[in-house]
Amino acid sequence: MSLPAFAAGPAAAAASAVVRPFTTASFVLAIDGLAAVSFSKCSGLAGEIGVEEYPEGGENRFAHRLPTRAAFPNLVLSQGAGPLAELWDWFAEFHVAGLLAPRDGTVVLLGNDGGAPAPVRVWSFTRGWPVKITGAELDAQSPGVAIDTLEIAHHGLALRAVV
Predict the structure, then answer these.
(1) pLDDT tens readout for residues 43-54
(2) N or C: more exposed end of the chain, with fewer CB within 10 A?
(3) Contact of 103 with 32, CB cutoff 8 Å
(4) pLDDT digits 0-9 by tens, 18-34
């Protein structure tokens, strides 16, 4: 059996090295002024640019498609209920003072390449605030893990370079 043309030679051996994707097993939420917290689930690391169609008079082959504004879904993070209450306190700021200070933060995906965990991807969000927090469902009949959920609205998300 012969090798394909692209796999011949030493350069091809380096080019054909297997690149494994990052696992999502370990990540941390860091918010300005609060302690970093590990979470077991995160969704909402996305962005979308809206499109407006503009039909031009006399041009029947297509409608022009123009970008409008960016939109970002809320970040939704879940973790096993633990002793850390800072996130609940951040949420309670609005109920106590009637004001809520937005904070910048990051979601850091940690990779373990044979050594200590190190950041492999970092998403940063700006002017975030908690819009919903849900405590664990308590059921003495269920042997499940107690899970807290935090939902954060924000003004933008960016994938930062990892140094």
Answers:
(1) 999 999 999 999
(2) N
(3) yes
(4) 555 555 567 899 999 88
Domains of the chain, residue spans: 17-160
Burial of 60 (0-12, 13-18, 19+ CB in 10 A): exposed
What CATH number was assigned to the domain covering residues 17-160?
2.30.110.20
Q: Report which of 87, 97, 83, 98 is spatially closest to residue 134, judged by C-alpha positions.
A: 87
Which runs of consecutive H residues, i.e. helices, occur in 2-155? 10-15, 86-97
pLDDT in tens, 59-90: 899 999 999 999 999 999 988 776 568 888 88
**Among 25, 30, 17, CA closest to 123:** 30
- Report which DSSP code applies to 141: T
User: Do residues 52 and 65 touch, judged by C-beta distance below 8 A?
Assistant: yes
Q: Helix (H, G, I), strand (E, B), or coil: what is residue 155?
A: coil
Prediction pTM value: 0.76
Separation between Cα atoms, residue 162 and residue 24, nearest integer Å:
16
CA distances from 105 to 82, 93, 125, 129 (A): 21, 17, 5, 10
